[in-house]
């Protein structure tokens, strides 16, 4: 989808996982980390500083994202969205199975 803000090539660079010189995946595109929760791949970034903490995730396959902003001190990356996002993923998957012509709907009929 072209939103006019970034070119397709810029988006590809931002969201394609880098490869280390050893040939192994780095787990990180340009400033983003990759992961999966309950089998759903995501891009994320988390961090904080004096008095704040933030997590941001994008789940491209289900068209969803989540953001957590907190007032707190400490740099520990707790991955709080792991607990919060499970319900969102479940709801998004359920909604996709109800959409006519959706890939997941078609697979469930198979």
Task: Provide keyphrases for this structure.
alpha+beta; 4-stranded antiparallel sheet; 110 residues; 3 helices; globular
Describe the structure.
- This protein has about 110 residues and is α+β, with helices and mostly antiparallel strands.
- It has 3 helices and 4 strands; from the N terminus they run αββββαα.
- The protein has helices spanning about 10-15, 80-100, 105-110, and strands spanning about 35, 40-50, 50-60, 65-70.
- It has a 4-stranded antiparallel beta sheet with strand order 1-2-3-4.
- The longest helix is centred in the last third of the chain and has 18 residues, at about 80-100.
- It is globular and about 45 Å long.
- About 5% of the residues are buried.
Write a brief caption for the model.
The chain is of the alpha+beta class. The protein has three helices and four strands, in the order αββββαα.
Topology:
Layout: H1 8-15, E1 33-37, E2 40-49, E3 52-59, E4 64-71, H2 81-98, H3 103-109
Antiparallel strand pairs: 1-2, 2-3, 3-4
Helix pairs in contact: 2-3
As a percent range, the share of strand residues is 25-35%
Output the strand order for the largest sheet. 1-2-3-4
Task: Kindly report the average pLDDT value.
Answer: 82
β-strand number: 4
Helix content: 25-40%
Number of discrete helical segments: 3
Radius of gyration, in Å, reads 16 Å
Distance between the first and last residues' Cα: 28 Å
Oligomer: single chain
Shape: globular
The succession of helices and strands, N to C, reads HEEEEHH
Low-confidence stretches: none
* Class per helix and strand makeup: alpha+beta
Q: Give the biggest sheet.
A: 4 strands, antiparallel
């Amino acid at each position: 989808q072209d939103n006019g803000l970034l070119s397709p090539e810029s988006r590809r660079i931002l969201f394609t996982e880098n490869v280390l010189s050893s040939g192994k995946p780095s787990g990180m595109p340009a400033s983003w980390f990759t992961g999966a929760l309950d089998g759903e791949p995501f891009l994320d970034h988390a961090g904080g500083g004096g008095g704040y903490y933030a997590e941001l995730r994008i789940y491209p396959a289900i068209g969803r994202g989540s953001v957590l902003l907190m007032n707190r001190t400490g740099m520990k990356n707790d991955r709080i969205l792991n607990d919060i996002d499970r319900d969102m993923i479940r709801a998004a998957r359920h909604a996709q199975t109800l959409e006519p012509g959706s890939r997941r709907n078609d697979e469930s009929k198979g």
